[in-house]
């Protein structure tokens, strides 16, 4: 009797987790872009590297 309910909850969670990770990834990218732009605004040179796994790093010199 409880099985359909439990199955529905599991399916909803499996859909929600990747969606949350995508939103979190976009937020991280926006933060990195803002860091990159603020570095350029101060007159410094900046490099942004985006790895194949999606990790972004900003170097300000």
From TrEMBL:
Species per Swiss-Prot/TrEMBL record: Robertmurraya siralis
UniProt-recorded name of the protein: Uncharacterized protein
């Amino acid at each position: 009797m409880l099985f359909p309910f439990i199955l529905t909850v599991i399916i909803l969670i499996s859909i929600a987790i990747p969606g949350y990770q995508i939103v979190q990834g976009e937020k991280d990218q926006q933060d990195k872009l803002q860091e990159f732009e603020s570095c350029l605004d101060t007159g410094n040179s900046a490099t942004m590297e985006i790895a194949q796994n999606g990790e972004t790093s900003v170097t300000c010199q």
